[in-house]
Design brief:
The protein has about 325 residues and is mostly beta strands. The chain has 2 helices and 25 strands. The protein has a 5-stranded antiparallel sheet with strand order 1-2-25-24-23, with no helix packed on it. Strands 3-4-5-6 form a 4-stranded antiparallel sheet, with no helix packed on it. Strands 7-8-9-10 form a 4-stranded antiparallel sheet, with no helix packed on it. Strand 8 and strand 9 form a beta hairpin.
């Protein structure tokens, strides 16, 4: 297990790549497992457990204390979020199926129940990123298929919202015409929603009405072109100061962007070729957990980026995160 310290006295790689404003931060591997397509980290503050998925290997992982366990599912799994008031019950995205996963802490058995299917007419689509808002409503988006050249056809995906009036009979298509639905975050008073459709290379901003769980007034908040950022934005989280932390896919870094100013506050360099998502965790929410991807990474790139495919824990950033929210219970009471 590797640990990197962001100071200027350890390794030359680190010395060259650690931003000054993160001097003193350390990066360690959560476990030795190498993930093919690590994604969707969720810190469960009620139980001090880190959950995440490996999309390509159809696995949901659980890191509790010092133990890493996983369940093997039958399809690509894109996210896992606990349900409020229900210990051991999760909502997850399997292919284009919204499903429940029963997996109790300290138990190895699990049960999956299919709840709803989306994008049925769009062959090759699957669920991608998801979050719950301040009231526990699930917001989950899909992505189009990736062809042999790595291209995703535009406009085939949708951002959905699960309402608890119709529950699984009808998921609300909030934003159709998306290409790769990714990171979602709300500011601390839930008046703003930040959103990523990765190929745009932008962070979009909406006005958010928490009383109706609706969005309006879309505009560009941050554009990767502004600061010549490589790659695209992927997963995203927000800290207690209201600032964004954005996984930079194909950029080997996490961007720190002011949640009001839209200014680039810093770049946290990660020794992994592909950085996919981030969330704050730990008992004090002062650690940043980072998922990475090894799919398509060459041996030469792996040598240059030795933490590729690992789930990483970053300590010493000097900021605290906000709690990840569970999905509201109403639609799940009988499961």
């Amino acid at each position: 297990m590797f640990v990197f310290w962001c100071n200027f006295a350890f390794l030359s790689w680190v010395a060259m790549n650690c931003a000054m404003n993160y001097n003193g931060a350390s990066i360690r591997e959560v476990a030795d497992d190498v993930l093919v397509q690590g994604e969707g980290p969720f810190w469960d503050s009620e139980n001090n457990v880190l959950y995440f998925v490996d999309i390509s290997q159809h696995r949901v992982y659980r890191f509790f204390r010092t133990n890493l366990d996983h369940v093997q599912l039958d399809e690509e799994v894109s996210f896992v979020i606990p349900v409020a008031g229900q210990q051991g019950l999760f909502v997850t995205g399997l292919g284009t199926t919204l499903a429940s996963l029963r997996w109790n802490l300290l138990e190895n058995t699990h049960k999956v129940i299919a709840l709803a299917i989306v994008d049925q007419e769009k062959i090759g689509n699957r669920w991608n990123d998801a979050k719950a808002d301040v009231n526990g409503y699930l917001w989950a988006g899909t992505t189009g298929f990736k062809d042999a050249k790595g291209h995703v056809p535009p406009g085939r995906a949708t951002l959905y919202r699960l309402n608890d009036t119709e529950c699984f009979q009808n998921l609300d298509p909030v934003l159709p015409g998306i290409t790769i639905s990714n990171g979602i975050a709300w500011n601390n008073d839930s008046t703003r929603m930040y959103y990523i459709d990765s190929p745009t290379r932008q962070i979009a901003l909406f006005d958010y009405d928490s009383a109706t769980a609706t969005i309006s007034n879309r505009r560009t908040f941050y554009d990767f072109k502004k600061d010549n950022i490589p790659g695209v934005p992927d997963g995203m989280t927000i800290d207690a100061n209201g600032n964004l932390w954005i996984a930079n896919y194909n950029g080997s870094q996490v961007l720190h962007v002011g949640g009001t100013s839209a200014k680039l506050l810093g770049k946290l360099n990660i020794p992994a070729k592909i950085v996919s998502s981030v969330t704050f965790g730990g008992p004090r929410l002062d650690k940043l957990y980072v998922t990475t991807i090894s799919l398509g990474v060459t041996p030469e790139e792996l040598s240059e980026y030795p933490m590729t495919g690992k789930v990483l824990e970053v300590s010493g950033l000097g900021v605290h995160g906000t709690k990840n929210r569970r999905v509201r219970e109403k639609c799940f009471r009988l499961l």
